[in-house]
Amino acid sequence: MSMLEMQLSSCSTVKLLEGITLEGRNLDQEMISCGSIEKATDKSNASFRSPFMTPPSRHDKTSDSIDTNGESSQLGSRQHKKALLELLDQVEDVICVEDQVSTDTGTASTSYEIKQNNKIGINSDAAEGSSVGSTEKAKTKPANVYFLVFEVSEKQFVGSNGSQRTLKVLRLLDEECGEERSVYLSDDWFYSVIAPGDTVHVIGDFSEEGICEVNRDKNFLIVHPDILVSGTRVAASFSCPRRTVLDERLKNNEQSSAALAGLIRESPTKEFLEEYARVLLQKNYESLFACGVYEGDIHRTMLEAIPRLLKWILLFRDSKSPSSCVDFGSNDGVKKVKVSEVIDIEEMAWAPKFGLKGVIDASMHVKVASKANQTTDYIMPLEFKTGKATNGQAAIEHSAQVMLYTLLMSERYKKNIDYGLLYYLHTDQTQGIAVRRSDLVGLIMRRNELASDLLKASTMQQLPPMLQVPNTCKGCRHLKACTVYHKAHGGSIEGSGLGDVYSSLVNHLTTAHCNFLKKWERLIDLEANELEVVRKEMWGSRSTNGSHSSTCLSSIVLDTSDQVPRNNFIQGNRFVYRFMRQDLNPSSSGKDLECSLKTGDYVILSTDPGRLVVGRGVIMDMTRINVTVSFSKRLRLPGSSPSKIIHDLCQEVWRIDKDEFTASFAMMRFNLIQMFLQDDRSSHLRSMIVDLNAPRYDGGCIFSQDPAVSYIWSEKTLNDDQRKAILKILTAKDYTLILGMPGTGKTSTMVHAVKALLMRGASILLTSYTNSAVDNLLIKLKSQSTEARENGMGVSLFCRLSEAHPQAISALQSQYRMSAPIMELSNALIYGNRLRCGSPDVANAKLVYTNSTSTSLWLKKVLDPLRQVIFINTDLLPGLEVKDCKTVNNPLEAYIVTEITDKLTCQGIRGEDIGVITPYNSQANLIKQYVSNSVEIHTIDKYQGRDKDCILVSFVRSSNNPKNCKSSLLGDWHRINVALTRAKKKLIMVGSQRTLSFVPILKLLIEKVEEGCSILNVNREDIDINNQHKGELKRCSQLRSL
Questions:
Q1: To bridge 879 with a disulfide, which of 617, 787, 831, 874 should be the other Cys (CB 3.0-4.6 Å)?
Q2: pTM of the prediction?
Q3: Beta strand 983-991 with 948-954: parallel, antiparallel or unpaired?
Q4: How does pLDDT run across 257-288, given as a tens digit for each residue?
Q5: SUPFAM superfamilies in the record, alphabetically (predicted)?
């Protein structure tokens, strides 16, 4: 029996209420007052104390006897569990059976309603068709209100019986309305660690005097509610908060495959699941490799688990089976349990109200029969444990995890969910978990302290103290990282509590090493905190219906038109849904879906309003009126019955937000800390990157009998620069830096280098900084976080190494892309005239028109093939930029770009050979609506690695007050260099010379173009916006009449 079970059974408990899953009940009020019944229980046994009720400020040191079995193998167990969950997903439909009234057992379906006196009334034989799964659409409640703490004090009160009580008093301010409130904390809540400046959320009602008391019997206080803490993390933090914070900050083992949503309709068999196990392994080799887990071990575990899974399904699908009994540790004793439906597998549940989040292994409809053979329907979480630790501290943590999942599901399903199931695969044991308010109070308080710990770590790089329990610490997965952080932040051997073990792990670190680690840890946190601001805006009280953000789409619905391709609904085990604006009509303008979201972005789908998260997906396609999103499994609203899933989805209004990847920063921290560990590989990396030791190369002559060298000398397509660069790669023992200017054949050089290395039998890993998802995220963050950039985050590893050891650089200087006039721009601005054309053909390349059409004078000048570079100045036209919240575009420039591309195609230039570049997503989206689909239109960031015969650049910014028109995008020379070096034969730039001249890099560009007499000033005679072009310009504007 677990520690939790023993403590639960040691006290007198009240019989569990039948029929807790009530329709239309006030969940908030019930969660507030749910302690009223058990209050008598706690008072009747003064010795009872929940295992989770240790006040945060009075934590005792964990004893040496804490069970740490399975600690070192957690990574493999997690991967085993993920694979087994996919197997369970395959049998999800098998467990879904129709609810029927059983006349021979005397059990009838029941429904419940709340009477005016707040007592529970029970109506037998409910109307036909009602079921637990069918829920009426909940009324929209206001967003969670967060308060600012501006004073914390303690006061003495005299009770009615004359006893004195000490309360902690919080004075709060609602920043939205300016109203002041007070919260009185008593009992264990008194020990909550709260300071002025903190943000809190109060779950409870305030009196007319603006006071709310939080005690053991009623109400909750959530500290830092905008930090969504994983239920798993909260449960694990009781034994060592420092380990849990490191878990969150150094997530390197979260690789897993999403559960498949293609559900079978046949009964599961051993043979089917064994075959599917093999398919799962093939699909997830990448995840297994990332985790360092051998696929044979995973396969063996899965095969061993299949008989137990089948047995569990058969037992709990049949309520008459005597083995389907589960002990919930209550006065009711053992109960018969029947699973009637698996609602979801790995259900993502976020509850900003409680500051919690989690992924629930399985959400189920369960029928529970009491001793009196009364059957009650419940919704329960099932937590699935594959490790060997099934008792002691591990069992307490597992129970805590299930309890927190009931809280998440209560918020998600708008029902009181007081029970859960815990299944141990290793022992084939199913345990019932009953939730008590006293347990929830302790868990919420622990969650609050963990949120504070996470905030301190991200803002001050301050971790909780070391545990100082050698028997526990020596088996911890974070032992090495934990001791390195302790050393880096001035910790001592006495403070570690580990003696010589600590010294052996950190004695190699110098002061310079510690400073390097602290500096880059801080810079990573600065970047990560920028994303946290976005998340807080998404889930905070100010995120109201109708709020506009460039990274979200609100008020959208599922597109149910006949034009949606049904055969593409399921694509490669992905489920595709298409959305459109709720108020879409034939006259809708292009602004309907205007935002910075684009194809390939990872997004979160939630209800609007309500912000109920339903799934994570990837944008597959985005047009003026539709956005198509791919998900790993079918969408389903909580509470939807199986027969109404699609109907309920179509009735809902949705919101799509960009899913910013904070996990990538955890990977950065993990990779950073690896350099400071005590092993040969880390020592070598540290010597090169931190100590900046010179790279090593093979000395002596290169022998001709080396097939790789022979291949490079014989390859005629390589120029001298490329050949020297590859030979340097072949002789490098550490690293080689290839500085490839635009168009110099970096890709070709890498291809031949790979071929040469393969001839030697080398193992090769190819990576790229320009993966669109990663690249766009990093560039965005780089422009957002000024403090991080100014402190060195903008300095790449390539730059750091090249400045320290220029002899390690091989430069490629002959380019084969741009004609000479185009090349001269970047040569003058960036490369100090080191760049040269690889051949006369490249230098003299021009556009060749196959058709001849009549056109206006200004367009003839623009299209002249002899003018390979031209800047169209719009200062003589009313072509100012248009701002809308966080977006900016320029309708006039969009019109000019449209006119030029139309004439280029009319004169025989293929759309595939034309590209349009702009710094801003909103401008790209505007131009896409009116330019041929064959013309590639992207932001500068997405044009890295691409080139076209003709490139048009729209700079967008144009202001009556150009001095105040600041743009980090236009001031970034890396971006400007990309924009200028994509064109092969013709570069056409459109912008305001007056405005752009206030940006230093663009001022130099305009001066260079002016030297070649290549600036074209267009005026109202060229583009008469009041007459023939007024319709086209208005068509492009979408935002205002010109």
A1: 874
A2: 0.71
A3: parallel
A4: 333 222 233 456 788 788 878 877 777 776 67
A5: P-loop containing nucleoside triphosphate hydrolases
